[in-house]
Amino acid sequence: MWLSLSSGAANALSPGPIDSDFIEIGPVISAIFGNDSVTSPFVDHFTFNATPPILGPGALSVVSDFSFSPVGFDVHFDSIELWDVTTTTLVAPGILTPGGVAGLAGFTGLSFGHDYDIVLTGGLNSGHTSGGYAGSITIVSVVPEPETYAMLLVGLCLVGFAARGRRLRL
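The chain above was modelled as a monomer; its predicted structure follows.
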């Protein structure tokens, strides 16, 4: 069984809201999602709202669980998509590996206050009666760190001094 660590608690993976699963480590915000009880073809939804710091560019990834009886990946994916539910816009169509056992989707940014839906479709691979998969969404914060502002200020001062010195020479 796959477990997700969120706020120090272990949770079984199942479709639904993932707002509370996001954790921030420096400029990177991420959440783990998945389904550890696939028994038939599935259309799974994982929803969240884009509020700071969940606003920057990022990526989704998913991978099937692997079993030893029968040997092989449990599930295959038919699609992986990120939808902006507020505007009904497809933000990120996914790319699947051959055989559909893993997938990726990248996006350039999220809109403040919009609701988003990660939609995964797929089914069990031949010979498997149950299975699961895990995925993650990773977002890079677009809010600059204080050091960035400091470098910008130093750069502006240097440009100002250079312009002033040039004006004095003329």
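Residues 1-11 have pLDDT under 50 and may be disordered.
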